[in-house]
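Need residues for this backbone.
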């Protein structure tokens, strides 16, 4: 399905796009785009999508070449670009793990080692339950957790991963305690377990469960963001659902970036070019077909998002180590 979707991207490009005015003047050769994930996943697909829609931004005879380098949890690819010459010929798809791994002792690189260009994914974490669940609101779910500490089983994509840390954050904010159940193979198996009623809830992105929600199999109780998610506009934020004083934000993001300390002119060219891309209706429609809500978070705004999450995860992981 993913391959068919990517093949269809050419059909979504505006007629004559390849003849559009070039906005990158510096490339004299191909630009490598390192994807530190396996082929076929959301990060890989979003990377290839934005590259495809940016092809008319390259000078004639040059192209952006995607290269998957998932070794070492993607750290190998991140290191390659972090240490590369800051000349704009190597880009990389950074993901939210960049804000977590350094604090977990898993990576020597941080957001400071990169120059963000454009965000392809910034989906909030959501609390999802089976449609047969007795919990119809997030408040009911939290109240049940308080009444049954450590008994409600919440699935995640692996201990220490984003959805596990999101569960820990919910415990911290609400004074609850869950039975955190890891599915190290990824989000898919945890969602399958929820569908099969083997667990009580799962934390994931809303787009990951859209088909099951549309089919009436699962339901979303709340999203961890400062505003409602357009894919499910009737689902409240944590602040709304729990009457909190502050917003609760946890996002699964992917940001196209290049090496730190890049020349200002090259940075401007890249940010301007990809800002045009992420604002393109055809590109946004292509993402929506993948269950990803398009965002326009580029350049310094993307850097601030990465910095904010690095601080948040640093504090959260430090607290978990004390326990």
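Answer:
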């Amino acid at each position: 399905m993913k391959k068919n979707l990517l093949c269809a991207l050419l059909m979504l490009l505006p007629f004559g796009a390849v003849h559009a005015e070039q906005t990158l003047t510096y490339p004299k050769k191909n630009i490598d785009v390192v994807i530190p994930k396996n082929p076929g996943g959301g990060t890989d697909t979003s990377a290839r999508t934005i590259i495809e829609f940016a092809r008319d931004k390259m000078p004639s005879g040059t192209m952006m070449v995607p290269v998957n380098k998932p070794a070492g949890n993607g750290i190998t690819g991140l290191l390659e670009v972090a240490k590369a010459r800051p000349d704009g010929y190597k880009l990389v798809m950074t993901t939210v793990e960049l804000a977590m791994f350094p604090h977990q002792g898993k990576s020597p690189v941080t957001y400071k080692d990169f120059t963000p260009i454009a965000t392809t994914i910034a989906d909030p974490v959501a609390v999802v339950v089976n449609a047969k669940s007795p919990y119809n609101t997030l408040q009911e779910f939290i109240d049940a957790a308080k009444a049954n500490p450590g008994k409600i089983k919440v699935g995640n994509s692996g201990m220490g991963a984003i959805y596990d840390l999101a569960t820990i954050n919910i415990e911290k904010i609400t004074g609850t305690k869950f039975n955190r159940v890891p599915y190290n193979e990824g989000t898919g198996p945890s969602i399958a377990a929820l569908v099969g009623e083997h667990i009580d809830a799962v934390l994931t992105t809303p787009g990951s469960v859209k088909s099951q929600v549309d089919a009436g199999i699962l339901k979303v109780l709340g999203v961890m963001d400062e505003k409602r998610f357009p894919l499910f506009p009737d689902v409240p934020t944590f602040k709304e659902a729990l009457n909190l004083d502050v917003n609760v934000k946890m996002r699964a993001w992917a940001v196209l970036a290049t090496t730190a300390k890049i020349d200002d002119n090259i940075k401007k060219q890249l940010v301007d070019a990809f800002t045009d891309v992420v604002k393109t209706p055809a590109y946004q429609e292509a993402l929506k077909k993948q269950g990803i809500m398009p965002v326009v978070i580029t350049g310094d705004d993307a850097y601030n998002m990465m910095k904010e999450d690095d601080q948040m995860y640093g504090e959260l992981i430090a607290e978990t180590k004390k326990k």
